[in-house]
Amino acid sequence: MNIMLKNIFLWSVVATCQATSNRNGVTPPYMKLNLHCSATNAYDGDTPQNGECVLDVNSPTDNSANEAATIAELVAGYGKSRVFAQFLVTLPDLDGGATGLDGHAAGSCLNYKVGTANMLYTANGTSAMDKSVRFFYNDNDDTDSALAYVYAGVNCSGAGADSTSGFIWGDKNINGKFANGGVGNFDAAAKYGLRLNAALTDVVEATAVRWLGKKSFSGQLIGPYTNNSCRGLSYEATTSWFLPFVVALEDATGETNYDAYTETAVSSTHKCRSARGDKNGATANDAIWYSWKLGSSATNGDITFIVSQGTGAKLVGVAAPAADDGTNAAKTNAECVAGNTHHEATFNMTWDGTFTNCVQAKDAAGETIPSKFYKLVPSIFSTGSSWPSTVAAPSACAACANASPASGLHISAFTAVLLAVLALIA
User: Which range marks the domain in which residue 87 is found?
Assistant: First the structure.
């Protein structure tokens, strides 16, 4: 019996030590995906026209007053127009073939819908998502790239198809590296844009900034469900969110000349991002935005996710973007105005590492919303020490008036295991 108890003690200590770091000590790479639309008086190509979000790289002329005169001008302006939607996604390895079944797949899948002249990246109440994309990372020192795999349905399920397009950063020594989205070495105009649609003429203007080795917490936010078991959601519904996220636990700066894309560490002040691909949200009622923030205390274990749209929804500070640095969703917005469909879901992790991943949403006034629940699915690499807010373990003797002289003494994880092993052989 004594030996059994000692074994239980040893493995408890080992488990505690393992819980202090991510699996295998790996911090997954992630990127800020910027989905652009053509800025007025900048360039069109053929489409997009003043806010349309699908680009026809094969037709340089449509006689529009705002078009680029040549394909060369289109190429020169690519990635310098406003950002209409922005997402932070993890970059898993291509493990498992085209199915992409990697350990940190959560946080990497983005649903979308290709319209005739625009792109949608989350349900807007009238249009449902019907396709999805995931970017797989090639960490070869000379390649340093992400390849887009597209899926015929939502949630990146089943086998994905190699789109042949993605992002090539090409230098792992530069963190916060910026890249245009497209195919290969961009030696022709037709190689610009992500192939998220089957037709070559309908590609998406996109750029991305990539970070390596930066601490983060990632996963997918899914909802709203109608029950507290978070079961039975129709992912193709016109109101469903399947949101990939990466919460920065430390500042991640953009490289020189791209500091507008810097991602600051999460705090109790939320920043809003647009999830709408066809409008920038500067006009009331147009915005579809999301955000996250910590609780009022960095040690209460809370992280709150917010999604908002509908009547009144607006992003402030994005009406007049500067073409040279991709403002709009690229920078932190000073203010975001809630719409009449506004859901806030607060998840909490206790000191012992447990949390409820299905919670009921509240509205902008903090009132509980009937039959609206959200599920949080963390990446496997976001277990252990990656939860953004840490609750201190309770004191072994919280009511003791006179603390022991050694009450402030702490030992390392290695020392704890060593002592446990010594206890076994004692």
Answer: 17-386
The string of pLDDT tens digits covering residues 388-403 is 777 777 766 555 555 4
Query: Which uninterrupted H or E stretch holds 321?
Result: none
Angle, alpha carbons 42-258-175 (nearest 5°): 145
Nearest C-alpha neighbor of 220 from the set 364, 380, 354, 391 = 380
Give the residue from 306, 294, 292, 293 showing the smallest Cα distance to 342: 306
Q: How many domains does the chain have?
A: 1
Tokens representing 64 are 């529009």
Kindly state the DSSP code that residue 300 receives in the 8-state scheme: S
Tokens of 382: 């976001």
How far, in Å, CA of 296 to CA of 303, rounded? 10
**Residue 9 CB contacts under 8 Å (≥ 6 apart), including other chains:** 420, 423
Residue 177 lies in a domain: yes
| Residue 425 located in a structural domain | no
How confident is the model over 123-155, as pLDDT tens digits? 788 888 999 999 999 988 778 999 999 999 999
| pLDDT for res 13 | 36
Question: In this predicted model, what pLDDT tens digit does every residue of 64-80 receive, in sequence order?
Answer: 444 445 566 667 777 77
Is-contact 287 335, C-beta < 8 A?
Answer: no
Separation of first and last alpha carbons in the chain: 15
More confident residue, 190 or 116: 190
What is the DSSP secondary structure assignment for residue 11, as one 8-state letter?
H
Cβ contact 315:275 at 8 Å = no
In whole angstroms, what is the distance from residue 219 CA to residue 90 CA? Answer: 8
Rg of the chain over Cα atoms, rounded to whole angstroms, equals 24
Instruction: Classify residue 382: in a domain, yes or no.
Output: yes
The sign of the torsion formed by the CA atoms of 349, 350, 353, 359 equals negative
Confirm whether 369 is domain-assigned.
Answer: yes
Give CA 4 to chain center in angstroms. Answer: 45
